[in-house]
């Protein structure tokens, strides 16, 4: 396979300051953001989102940190706070995190702090509580999550004693995320086929982790849906046509219980996953197949593939789709593709279908993370 399946496959195998201001015209309907992940300097690329869903590039704003210059095998490297006031981004090359204020005049860096470990790859936000997932960066480094408080002015303050380690060194961690109520912090470990679950206290500290065996191999991207249910993609080490998705829920005692175990999508390297804001559907990008697969989420939390062949939408030959993001009204789905260095636009249709609506190109190789509003 070509090098860019490395975002999905290289990582599958073990995965692997000063204020800056830019002027950005207000978007007509919203905006889409992605990070260049450049080794010589990370930047946030800003796109206006028109009412028609189409994107127009506006500007690139430096984060002050360094990217890795290549795929991180992650989901959630770029996040927006729930109130839409701040973007947080990992700088994997300089082992820190930048905060950028989202204002009418553009983006402004308000803080940049060490991530609490080496090679940050994913960020979780619950209100003003932030946890960063650190992938270690070298064989033998211990992967961890580390906590921070985000002030109203956009500064991050480390939470003393908040760092917690994952199940082993070099777990190939992909994503960290809070449950909707903020009571649980979950992490997927690709290399150990494990889902780590940490209880979150009222003070923002984490309790001892419980480590659950994934239903499918190489658990990667995930999202929480309604009633706190958890949906996880499983890439199976990039094996051809072997990808699956599982759904879970938490018992009253906090145990992770399987609802739908490893439901096949018939495609290759299913890695990034998003759930609609309505909670009715989920979608995964199949990096090895250059497709998107959709699933219906039933009322009981079980899932069913929308299309028998697993292809809800193609993303273009050799496009190698990675991250996904929905606009806030569920009307448009955006797909970042690492092979073609594009962001594809899809209209969400009734009953879960996706209609391709073109794309914007010219993104740097290694671009990572996607946020839409």
Give a description of the structure.
The chain is mainly β and 373 residues long. The protein has a single domain, classed as Methylamine Dehydrogenase, Chain H (7 Propeller), CATH 2.130.10.10. It has one helix and 30 strands. Strands 8, 9, 10, 11 and 12 form a five-stranded antiparallel β-sheet that branches. Strands 21, 22, 23, 24 and 25 form a five-stranded antiparallel β-sheet that branches. It is globular and about 50 Å long.
Q: What is the CATH topology descriptor?
A: Methylamine Dehydrogenase, Chain H
Q: Helical stretch count?
A: 1
Uncertain residue ranges: 1-27
How does the helix and strand content classify structurally? Answer: mainly beta
Characterize the overall form. Answer: globular
**Backbone CA Rg:** 18 Å
Q: Please identify the top-level CATH class.
A: Mainly Beta
Helix content: under 10%
Strand content: over 45%
Q: What's the rounded overall pLDDT mean?
A: 92
Provide the CATH architecture: 7 Propeller
The main β sheet shows up as: 5 strands, antiparallel
The tally of strands reads: 30
Annotated CATH homologous superfamily: YVTN repeat-like/Quinoprotein amine dehydrogenase
- How many distinct folded domains? 1
End-to-end distance, in Å? 33 Å
């Amino acid at each position: 396979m070509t090098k860019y399946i490395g975002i999905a496959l290289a990582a599958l195998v073990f995965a692997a300051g000063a204020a800056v201001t830019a002027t950005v015209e207000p978007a007509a309907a919203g905006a889409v953001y992605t990070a260049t992940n450049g080794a010589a300097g990370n930047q946030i690329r800003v796109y206006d989102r028109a009412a028609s869903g189409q994107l127009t590039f506006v500007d690139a704003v430096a984060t002050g940190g360094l990217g890795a210059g290549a795929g991180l095998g992650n989901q959630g490297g770029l996040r927006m706070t729930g109130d839409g006031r701040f973007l947080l981004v990992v700088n994997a090359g300089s082992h820190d995190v930048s905060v950028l204020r989202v204002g009418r005049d553009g983006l402004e860096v308000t803080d940049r702090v060490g991530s609490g470990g080496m090679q940050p790859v994913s960020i979780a936000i619950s209100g003003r509580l932030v946890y960063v997932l650190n992938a270690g960066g070298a064989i033998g480094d211990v992967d961890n999550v580390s906590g921070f408080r985000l002030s109203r002015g956009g500064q991050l303050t480390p939470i003393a004693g908040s760092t917690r380690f994952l199940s082993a060194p070099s777990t190939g961690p992909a994503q960290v995320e809070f449950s909707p109520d903020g009571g649980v912090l979950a992490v997927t470990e690709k290399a150990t086929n494990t889902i780590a679950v940490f209880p979150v206290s009222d003070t923002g500290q984490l309790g001892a982790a419980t480590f659950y065996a994934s239903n499918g191999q190489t658990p990667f991207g995930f999202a929480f849906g309604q009633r706190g249910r958890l949906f996880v993609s499983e890439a199976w080490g990039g094996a051809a046509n072997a990808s699956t998705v599982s759904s879970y829920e938490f018992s009253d005692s906090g145990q992770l219980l399987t609802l739908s175990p490893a439901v096949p999508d018939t495609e290759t390297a299913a890695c990034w996953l998003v759930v609609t804001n309505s909670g009715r559907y989920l979608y995964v990008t199949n990096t090895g197949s250059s497709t998107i697969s959709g699933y219906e989420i039933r009322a009981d939390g079980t899932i069913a593939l929308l299309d028998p062949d697993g292809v809800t939408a193609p993303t273009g030959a050799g496009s190698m789709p990675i991250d996904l993001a929905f606009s806030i009204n569920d009307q448009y789905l955006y797909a970042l593709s690492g092979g073609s260095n594009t962001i594809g636009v899809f209209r969400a249709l009734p009953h879960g279908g996706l209609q391709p609506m073109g794309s914007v190109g010219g993104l740097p190789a290694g671009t990572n993370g996607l946020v839409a509003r």
